[in-house]
Amino acid sequence: MTTTALAAKLDQLGVSLEQANQLAGTFLPHDTSTLVYICTQVGITGPMLGEILGFMPGDTSQAALDALRDFVLEFVAAGELQAAVDLGEFIGLSAAQIGAAFGASAADVVAVLEASHIDWTELAGSVPEVASVSSTTIAEGETSVQTVTLGGTTIGTTSYAAMVTGELSDVSGYGLSNGVQFALDQSGPVFIVPAGVASFTITLNTAENTVDETGDSDVRTISINVGGEVGVATINDDDITHTPPTGQALMPSDIADWAAYLQLNANTGFLSTAALRADVIAHSNSTDYWTLFDASGYIGAGDGTFTDAEAGWSIGNQPATAETIESVFYGTVIAALRNVDFSEEYDIATFAYLNQAALHNGDEEKFAQLIDMLTDAFGDTAGDQRAFDDDTIREEIVDAMVTLVGYAQYSPSLFHTLLSWTEA
Q1: What Å distances lie between residue 313 and 246, 255, 307, 340, CA to CA?
Q2: How many angstroms separate the CA atoms of 246 and 244, rounded?
Q3: What count of other Cβ atoms lies within 10 Å of the Cβ of residue 395?
Q4: Residue 318 in 3-state DSSP?
Q5: Ranges assigned E (strand) in 266-310
Q6: What predicted TM-score, i.e. pTM, was given to this entire model?
Q7: Please, which pLDDT band fits residue 56 given cuts at 50, 70 and 90?
Q8: Residue 165 bridge partners (DSSP)
Q9: At 205, which helix (H) or strand (E)?
Q10: How far apart are alpha carbons 397 and 332 in whole angstroms?
């Protein structure tokens, strides 16, 4: 039985299905390109030719798959592998169909192709690409299950480049489904996928603890890249609690010289307070974001107003609210980074790198030197030698803020974290 479209075309040409099949057979397997050319000239589409050759659209019966396998192997035996690939593309045979056709006797097919020194993945014309890698969000101690979906079914053992990055210390074990293995080859880490696989899962077991780690982020991520597609496992540490500052100065005494640079954020566009807030919350969460800017514990917040003397700034009385702290923080960071030029950025980064152990261990002399360098950098104008353009400033702020939102404590105040752009 033929489809309506093919029946109409054969009737127009004045030939029967049997005659068309015999005619097509005279060109195969050695003159496939001529057959395809003739079909296009007389209006026979690829699926129609497939039907003429006995491959009905959507027919996945065992008889149809066996016929397809035998058909392709005839091309292989005749040394016309590329012709089989070209014809398969024309008539619309997918890698999944070819793979299913070989599924019943995969070992025999592999043996034939290996004896002919042919890479059997070429039968599909190309290896199915990775279509997607799913993402998950779990609590610490739970199991993440991410699904890797391929664009078709593998017809042989196929390798996909792999890269796993992030907080791997949280992972206590992993598992792969459908016979997939993780290995290293000459190109680097890979997932090795056997024949007949259209998707597989990656399971990550995470370790539970009951420690509220000071300075630890309550949102940690592990990125899994498979064949260029990325999925993210987000791990929420439910042990962490946020404690707002109590009785602290908005500007710590050791960076009091920076008070002159404090300013509300008057920027518009992607550096506006609203835009930065939206970007940060999109990568963290709203509750912890506003906890970070909690104004209630700072000196002077009790009466609802920050005065210049209480806050250490010179921008006049401001409401003692999270919105004020938020605006001043963004405005100050943006202005500070805009004033840093290339040579200052290099000098600061080099100093912080060479003295990172001393700074980490609280060396007061080195810390004072760093503060002086930062004060000088923030206090002048970079002009056309700016180390950070506005796009870079936005990226720096959003990345750093996502981390700050996850801090368990403030040490010693929010504005002290201005150092996070230089000590990292």
Answers
A1: 19, 12, 8, 21
A2: 6
A3: 12
A4: strand
A5: 305-306
A6: 0.42
A7: low
A8: 223
A9: strand 199-206
A10: 11
